[in-house]
What does this fold into?
Amino acid sequence: QVQLVESGGGLVQAGGSLRLSCAASGRTFSRYVMGWFRQAPGKERESVSAISWSGSRMYYADSVKGRFTISRDNAKNTVYLQMDSLKPEDTAVYYCAAKATAYSNSYYYQPGEYDYWGQGTQVTVSS
It folds into this structure.
């Protein structure tokens, strides 16, 4: 199977920045769409961003558009989420996810579409 490990979370003040990383290991011989999700206390998991295998197609939730940037380095089997201008409402556990795909330029942004999940990393933004 494929294992995903997130890192880079922490505590920052509003307006600050964090860079999350998600490293994949195991059977990574297939093409994978990668996505970022988050879940705040008392709320359901929501899609944050996604990126196609080629890196040419990207999705951002309206709440983070213009502030977050997703990227990937397939040679390192790693996907990143650069988070700038952080707000208290961004506080959540952030998860990365992967879905095998036959297409280089497709992407997905619904949790039920993904096959593999990381353990999550906590992001806390103070006001």
Remarks:
- The mean pLDDT is 94.
